[in-house]
Write a structure and sequence with these properties.
single chain; about 350 residues; Serine Threonine Protein Phosphatase 5, Tetratricopeptide repeat; 2 domains
Length: about 350
């Protein structure tokens, strides 16, 4: 599947809130969301204050007891209870606990026999094939789900299959099924991360799957997820620097952030105090690294190298990359990529 098909996970994370319905209409929707968010935050703050007051009263009463040296729980339990109390709030990231687990968890050691390895090789081949083969891969993974529930290698492949299957369903117009598969993909990738936080593929597919949920999330959630997506992409690169896909993904993230309008940056700053920041040079560096790892084969990556060079006003170099992209056979690139290359060549070519 082309990263243009993966594109929504990046663009959705730093979505253009002014596009489509027009700036004025977008403003009204955004500020309505902001008012709703502030209301929720106020409610959460009141709940937290009530919880804190209640806890203080209980501890004060306990300290007066002559049996106060006997305790049934530790401070850690209190922290867990506190997180449980506020974890249901819409503005509290449901991924925060996952981030802590991923950072400190030890991979679950599960052995893989020859049969497992053969099964994974078969799935990888199917996932690199036609739409029918992708569906077949998904079905075979579904059948093995119970027997491989503790294997991270299974779950990130299931996430990949569900995501690619979701893309197919979306193209056929089955929007409800696409949504189901998108969230199924995210859930599977999250399980893979919990089982093995040192898996580059688990981080990569969690980033892709989480970003793809942006089509179904409010703007605040999409902006918040943008940071989570970025962190998982970086972790995937750290764990496997020779995989070109996370480099391209991080380039897309940086490019999307760089292209944010002033209005969109202000909207992001409303939630986080400061908006996401990236430069076109950072984006270009990541695209060039992806090209280094997969030289002369990735049409879409070449296109984005050219787009970065256009932003830098280096038109001659950009034209060279566009020409190279147009001459590169790439079965995974779609018609949109071909059309964009032609359009840019006609505009900047000499």
């Amino acid at each position: 599947m082309s990263l243009r098909q993966h594109g929504p996970f990046i663009l959705g994370a730093v979505a253009s809130v002014a596009a489509g319905a027009g700036l004025c209409v977008a403003c009204l929707h955004i500020w309505k969301e902001l008012r709703d968010i502030r209301t929720i935050l106020d409610e959460i703050k009141r709940d937290v204050d009530d919880i804190s007051d209640s806890r203080f009263s209980k501890r004060k009463a306990g300290s007066l007891s002559k049996h106060n040296y006997i305790t049934a729980s530790s401070g850690d339990d209190d922290e867990d209870d506190f997180q449980d109390a506020i974890g249901g709030g819409d503005i509290i990231s449901r991924h925060d606990s996952l981030e802590r687990n991923v950072q400190f968890a030890t991979p679950l050691v599960v052995s893989y026999d020859e049969e497992d390895e053969e099964f994974f090789r078969e799935i990888d081949e199917l996932l690199a094939g036609s739409k029918a083969q992708i569906k077949q891969a998904y079905c075979e993974l579904q059948e093995r789900q119970r027997n491989m529930s503790l294997k991270a290698e299974f779950h990130w492949r299931h996430a990949k299959a569900a995501y690619n299957y979701a893309t197919i369903e979306g193209e056929s117009g089955n929007t409800p099924r696409k949504k189901e598969l998108v969230f199924e993909s995210k859930d599977s990738a999250e399980v893979a991360l919990r089982l093995n936080p040192k898996s580059s593929d688990a981080h990569k597919w969690y980033a892709i799957a989480l970003g793809s949920t942006g089509d179904y999330e409010p703007m605040a959630e999409k902006i918040k997820n943008a940071y989570i997506i970025r962190d998982h992409i970086k972790k995937a690169i750290q764990l496997n620097p020779t995989d070109p896909t996370p480099h391209h993904m991080l380039g897309r993230w940086c490019y999307s952030v760089y292209m944010l309008s002033w209005f969109e940056r202000k909207a992001a700053a409303t939630f986080f105090g400061e908006p996401p920041i990236a430069t076109v040079d950072e984006a270009l560096d990541h695209f060039m690294e992806a090209e280094k790892q997969r030289p002369g084969k990735w049409k879409e990556n070449m296109l984005y190298i050219a787009k970065c060079l256009i932003e830098k006003k280096e038109y001659t170099m950009a034209t060279q990359w566009l020409q190279k992209a147009s001459e590169t056979p790439d079965a995974l690139s779609g018609e949109e990529i071909e059309e964009e290359i032609k359009t840019l060549l006609s505009k900047y070519g000499v």
